[in-house]
Amino acid sequence: MVPKGPGIGRMGWGGKSGVKLRQGCCARDSKKVFIDDEAGANPWHCEDLETVENSIARLLPRVDYRPVPPRVSTHTSMRTTLAGVLTLGLLASSADAAFHLVQIEEIIGGVNGNPLAQAIQLRLRSAGNNAIGPTRLRAWDALGQNPITLFDIPTSVTNGLTGDRVLLTTVAFNTVMAGVPGYSTDFTLTTPIPSSYLSGGKVTFENDAGTLIYWGLAFGSYTGTNLGSGDNDTDFGAPFATGLPTAAAQGIHFGGAATAPSTTNAADYSLTSNPATVINNARTSFTVVPEPGSLAFVSLGAAALGGLVFARRRR
Predict the structure, then answer these.
(1) How many Å from the N-terminal Cα to the C-terminal Cα in the chain?
(2) Which end of the chain is more exposed for a tag (fewer CB within 10 A), N or C?
(3) Number of helices and strands (H, E) in the chain?
(4) β-strand 135-140 against 200-207: which pairing, if any?
(5) 138-176 burial by CB neighbour count: b if 16+ within 10 A, else e?
């Protein structure tokens, strides 16, 4: 049996114990400490740290016990233990809350006929969700099968206000945008969405284990499930009506505000303008380069206008 009383000494407990201190199970006000067992039952409240020791001892079925030399304060030992457990619980909770309120705001499936030039833009639905890694983006085929990891997001981003973006692009997209002054992306996707998925598929933003889907965006001929973990929605509904465009410089874009709830992909998304605009976490926006033919037309028009002005001056 575990000895009880002020001289209990150091107590060690872990996965085999019957006590688990967690945020919400152990909260201290100015007078009391509340302790539950691992099942959340048998609550005890205590007036001071000595009684805390006694209550924990009562809840534990068996622990390793080593006497503490008289010079060591058991109050200090218990206070340190409780503080450590609570700190770990709070850190775990805040880490989970640091990235789950995020939506897939925009996807560009290709640029000027190049299906490898792709961009995915995330948007924070609440402040403080910029501790975005570790999470990942995956693409699914039209049946909701054969998932492909597009990128495993490793780290946080700097800006974390409501509405801030995170821009993820392919190598081919970066090449297309190389001539745009000041262009920069936040992350480069390791794998593009497979071309066979562009006419019908789904992209998910999820935890690394794939057990929590924070956002799903299905499109085109997709017929698989479109469920979420409940952080933003439990069901993202019917897919957007068409596949991801690749011929020009368009994408599909969430039409509501950052804080707007998800209804269905079909209702929430629409085609962007042509050319589309992307925004990185530094809050800098870039217009996706227009089609080469459009550039040629603009150049020709400018040259013709310049010639006309010159001719009028000569008169």
Answers:
(1) 111
(2) C
(3) 5, 16
(4) antiparallel
(5) bbbbbebeeebebbebeeebeebeebbbbbbbbebbbeb
pLDDT at residue 17 is higher than 60: no
Q: Are 172 and 166 in contact (CB under 8 A)?
A: no
Give me 254's structure tokens: 């969430």
Of 60-64, 190-194, 290-294, where does mean pLDDT reach its minimum?
A: 60-64
Residue type, 301: G
Distance CA 274, CA 251 (A): 8
At 243 the pLDDT is 98
Where residue 14 falls among pLDDT bands split at 50, 70, 90? very low
Q: Which two tokens stand for residue 122?
A: 């995330």
Number of Cβ within a 10 Å radius of residue 89 = 17
φ/ψ of 111, rounded to 5, equals -135, 125
Angle (nearest 5°) at CA 234 between 233 and 238: 85
Dist. CA 200–CA 314, nearest whole Å: 59
Instruction: Enumerate long-range contacts of 85-94, CB under 8 Å, 24 or more apart.
Output: 85/21, 85/26, 86/21, 86/23, 86/26, 89/21, 89/22, 89/23, 90/23, 93/23
d(CA 126, CA 76): 39
Q: Would you call 39 exposed, middle or buried from its count of C-beta atoms within 10 A (0-12, 13-18, 19+)?
A: exposed
Q: 3-state SS of 261-298?
A: CCCCHHHHEEECCCCCEEECCCCCEEECCCCHHHHHHH
